[in-house]
């Protein structure tokens, strides 16, 4: 192969992987706790089949793509897959067996799968069967695709999305506490799309008492999220919408040692799950609850709470992603009702930057999404 051909191949590898990432996102909200995965089959720089992981428990991306072609067409082709193919029996047979059987000449993989039953065994099996394997094409974009999955694998914690709406001068309410509505209806519809794909929606007890929210997606999305209330003293009212609909939508009340047993019993009798944690501090309870949610396979958590809860998560560096809706209006007043409280950052040079920032206009409002770029912790 001459140098021009090599250059074309490297360029095409990147473009093909980006396309595999693009189609993988079609599984968002449908495949978790599994990762989103996309796959292309390519012959002589032509994409001849595509596939993505469509639903939890269903065939993986590689199977969908390969099975769209006859065996002779796949032989000698190149496969592009965003995540290392599985080499173990889970909900489905190992993808690696089908790939080896159909004999592509090359497999291009975005990133290795850290899941212990895979963790390089898929790559090794391909190479042992004479298939050329290249790993790391568009690695950063592939890692972002499955960032919630990678976090749960490495830390036993879920991916936490902090969401809030505010005015251009940074207020979540007026000085009287009025907050309905900061943003336009079309903007609120956009926020409900996120609610429809996450595993849990969390608020603090003050937000639950003041706003009496439902915490459901309207219209219903791909998933029915567990509604989680951080309520250390079991103060949630029996008349609240959350309690009144607890038999219809899963509702988890997270209580601490200061909760009255009678209050816990009443909440349970009305259909709420009461998750009791004996930790003496709210910081310990927050982390404990998130570990429990991850243990249950819940991968994406939306925190739709007020500044106290978001501030506590910020101080513990538990926020992974921010969804901020900004209305182009001003309310003035003293600096109350800001999005994040807590201890905060002492010096501006320590402020946490966002990476992978995406901005979108929605009517007269703006949506800003980004990932918190926390400083590396010492090893």
CATH third-level topology of the largest domain:
Dihydrofolate Reductase, subunit A
What does the overall shape look like? Answer: globular
Question: pLDDT under 50 segments (min length 5)?
Answer: 1-5
Order of helices and strands: HEEHHEHEHEHHEHEHEHEHEHEHEEE
The CATH architecture term of the largest domain is 3-Layer(aba) Sandwich
- Please report which band the strand proportion falls in: under 5%, 5-15%, 15-25%, 25-35%, 35-45% or over 45%: 15-25%
Average the pLDDT over all residues and give the rounded result.
92
Largest sheet: 9 strands, mixed
In total, the number of domains comes to 2
CATH homology-level superfamily of the largest domain: Dihydrofolate Reductase, subunit A
First-last Cα distance: 44 Å
Structural class: alpha/beta
Question: What is the helix fraction of residues, given as a range?
Answer: 25-40%
Strand count: 14
- Which radius of gyration do the C-alpha atoms yield? 23 Å
Task: Give the CATH level 1 class of the largest domain.
Answer: Alpha Beta
Widest β-sheet, arrangement of strands = 10-9-8-7-11-6-12-14-13
What is the helix tally? Answer: 13
């Amino acid at each position: 192969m001459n140098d021009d051909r090599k250059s074309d191949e490297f360029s095409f590898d990147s473009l093909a992987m980006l396309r595999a990432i693009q189609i993988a996102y079609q599984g968002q909200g449908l495949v978790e706790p599994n990762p989103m995965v996309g796959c292309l089959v390519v012959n002589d720089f032509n994409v001849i089949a595509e596939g993505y992981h469509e639903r939890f428990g269903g065939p993986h991306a590689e199977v969908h793509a390969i099975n769209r072609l006859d065996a002779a067409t796949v032989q000698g082709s190149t496969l592009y897959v965003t995540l290392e193919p599985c080499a173990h029996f889970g909900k489905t047979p190992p993808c690696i067996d089908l790939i080896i059987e159909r004999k592509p000449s090359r497999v291009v993989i975005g990133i290795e799968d850290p899941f212990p039953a895979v963790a390089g065994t898929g790559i090794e099996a391909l190479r042992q069967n004479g298939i050329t394997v290249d790993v790391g094409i568009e690695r950063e974009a592939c890692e972002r695709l499955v960032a919630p999955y990678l976090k749960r694998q490495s830390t036993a914690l879920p991916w936490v999305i902090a969401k809030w709406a505010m005015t251009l001068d940074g207020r979540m309410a007026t000085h009287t506490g009025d907050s309905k509505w900061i943003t336009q209806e079309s903007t609120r519809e956009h926020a409900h799309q996120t609610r429809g794909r996450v595993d849990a929606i969390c608020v603090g007890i003050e937000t639950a008492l003041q706003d009496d929210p439902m915490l459901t997606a309207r219209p219903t999305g791909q998933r029915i999220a567990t509604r989680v209330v951080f309520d250390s003293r079991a103060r949630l009212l029996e008349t609240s919408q959350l309690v009144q609909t607890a038999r219809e939508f899963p509702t988890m009340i997270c209580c601490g040692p200061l909760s009255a047993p009678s209050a816990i019993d009443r909440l349970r009798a009305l259909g709420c799950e009461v998750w009791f944690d004996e930790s003496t501090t709210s910081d310990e309870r927050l982390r404990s609850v998130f570990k429990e949610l991850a243990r249950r396979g819940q991968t994406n958590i939306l925190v739709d709470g007020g500044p106290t809860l978001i501030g506590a998560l910020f101080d513990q560096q538990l926020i992974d992603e921010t969804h901020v809706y900004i209305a182009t209006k001003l309310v003035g007043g003293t600096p109350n009702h800001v999005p994040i409280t807590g201890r905060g950052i002492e010096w501006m040079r320590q402020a946490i930057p966002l990476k992978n920032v995406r901005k979108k206009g929605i009517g007269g409002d703006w949506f800003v999404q980004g990932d918190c770029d926390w400083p590396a912790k010492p090893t």
